Amino acid sequence: MTRPYRFIGKATPRKDGVEIVTGEAKFIADIKLPKMLFGKVLRSPLPHANIRHIDAGKAKRLDGVRAVLTYQDVPEWKGGMPAHVRILDRKVRFVGDAVALVAAETEEIALEALDGIEVDYEPLPAVYDVEEAMKPDAPQLYTQFPGNVLPNRCPGFGPKSLEEIAMGNVEQGFEEADIIAEGTYAYENIPNPLTAEPPGAIAAWERPDHLTVWSSAQNPYWEGVLLYLRTERKVHIRYIGTQCGGSYGTRLMSWQLILYAALLAQAANRPVKVCYSREEHFAAYGLRLGSRIHGKVGMKKEGTITAISGEWLINTGFYSQITQGQLAVGCGEVQLAVRCPNWDLKPKIVCTNRTASGIVRGFGGQELKSAFLPLLTEAMGKADLDPLEFFKKNYVKPGDGYYWRDGNWWVCRGVDYTKAMEKGAEAFRWKEKWKGWLKPTRVNGAKRIGVGVGVHGNADVGEDVSEAYVRLDPNAMATIYSCLAEHGTGQRSSLCKMIAEILQLPLENVSMTPPDSLLSPYEIGPFGSRGTYAIGSAIIAAAEEAKKKLLERCAPMLKANPEDLETEEGWVYQREKPELRIPWRTGMGIDRTLLGYGRFEPDFTVPNFMMLFVEVEVDVETGKTELVDVVSATDVGQIIDPLNLKNQLHGSLGSAGVDSALFEESILDKKSGRFLNINLVDYKWRTFLELPAFQTVTLETPFPTHRFGAIGVGEVSTAAGPPAILMATSNAIGRRVYEYPMTPEKILRVLGKTKRGVM
Questions:
Q1: Which H helix or E strand runs over 566?
Q2: Helices of type H across 580-663
Q3: 452 with 479, same domain?
Q4: 743 by DSSP, 3-state: which?
Q5: C-alpha distances in angstroms, 479 versus 24, 467, 565, 594?
Q6: Residue 186: which of 665, 670, 617 has the closest Cα?
Q7: Strand 477-481 relative to strand 510-512, pairing
Q8: What is the CATH number of the domain that holds 579?
Q9: What H or E segment, with its residue span, contains residue 350?
Q10: Do 339 and 430 share a domain, yes or no?
Q11: Most buried in the list 296, 343, 381, 522, measured by CB within 10 Å?
Q12: What's the rounded Cα separation, in Å, for the pair 494 and 530?
């Protein structure tokens, strides 16, 4: 549907484009404060141990060292959910756990000081597998969590946060089924979606209880709120966001890194910068959750799901950052993909002796569905159902209900994605390529071609609260006050376009404040694809209120009612008599600004959706699997900026998306607890030149969101990829593949051409 917009739906230059390409954009590495020190972290070489004794005397005596901290020197600041992990502890729980902190005049001196800290460890047994960790004789990471199992509740999502999916009568559902499929699938190769710039932060104390932080966080305001809570509500935080660049969801909740800098700055009485090395980024920063499901599915022959039961085991690593939240969202998202009246899916969050799992693009839903959908395809295969037709039948449609992360029942009022699915299938030539289960599309010597399809959706496009102000100046300028960081998507530019459209101002007349919690109102951040709907709604409401105030001030001068007026190019005029007009400065005066306020409240009734069609080529002689064609299909309601949308869909294709099914893998040595490929040589990546053919099919059916009827699709853009690739690979070689990623060794093992190796 075409709507007569001036800016919306049209390609325009990004507001920060020139700054980025000329190098003027400030990343955390570019920020330098007077008298700033450099902080470094001493890390544990053991996966599990008690610290018997630590001697930092040599490090403290080193010329240029200004602070050295151990667990004996820091307050009882804790993080995790529930709060259970100290900022520094006498017990270390993974290779890379923080043991001591150093601040020095240079990075070189700080690193030298780390070598001077002597630590006597008492080694403890370690455990890495979730099922091994739950056994009675397993090593215990925390005394308060017997069996290494954490509680499922996420207090931040409300008193009834979703802890499992339990509804209907599962036993009766299985009795009604014509087909039952059971099995174990897992998505736990721990892919690491590295951003281009490793994490970093600067901390400076303005007063004993006032801390200013600079960091490349995706959510500056909310990060400041979390730090306030972590510091026992005793420290007031001003949080300034630097250029974030790409995020993949990982630029959220880096509280430990920030508090390292804060504690060192407090001890040295000078600003301190702590930036992780690439190796630390690999081995000591948040990874994706490990996900394993033991499940059972009941289905009618025609594709109606009658019952689902199972146990979802979640490997959170050495502590839970917000795994309970990811559990809740995952349990909600799987209901969007599969309508079923009878559920009994029980998750368990398990601690193990590896790097903690943090937030990664997909936030629980990708982890659960990448393990669950392959089990569902077992049932589809037994019924000989076309997976495209199955997903069209079973995906949530307007009027369908689901339990979301808050534990409440919500009813979808979005759009029906059937047309988008069909358009995507047409572009991919699905009917021509689909030959049936475990059947290749074609064979070319040793090469086998197979196709697969996956779905992913998320109702968090309307999650959480956003606030915004829009200020109108008499010189026909508009300023958006929002603590929104630019995280690589062009979101700030897109929101400026919305305001330019409402006020009919040139785009260069609209700007946004930098992400600074001192300047801007509450904003939780642009995750979950919420930028377009949630943040956009708050900013639109603020602009409309400011515009209303402007028209009310101008109405007496134009001898008209405010509702009969409009504004354009800094003028206010009568709609019926456009020649009767005055400039903003006449209506406002030169000594006045007008401020509008907008607020968005959570709304989980308009889930977004993405269907991904994939084609792979497998060499059955070498085991190499290559992705050769991808088609994504979705409906965005209204495209705000076509280039930003294209860049978002294409830019998210590989890391954290489809490549986590093909070759991205953090390889853990279970003898030492160390990752073996924490460098950009051994960790397998894809360059731009190696990307496959990729088409996007994007429909524009207006959503019941805000005045532009748009919805975000960033996070879901390739989350459907891993199970689709597993399906395509299985079809190509004619045998079921149960493990990610599709490494040659695994393919050859499934084909019976190699034996299982010892890792």
A1: strand 565-568
A2: 584-588, 642-651, 659-662
A3: no
A4: coil
A5: 21, 14, 22, 11
A6: 665
A7: parallel
A8: 3.30.365.10
A9: strand 343-351
A10: yes
A11: 343
A12: 13
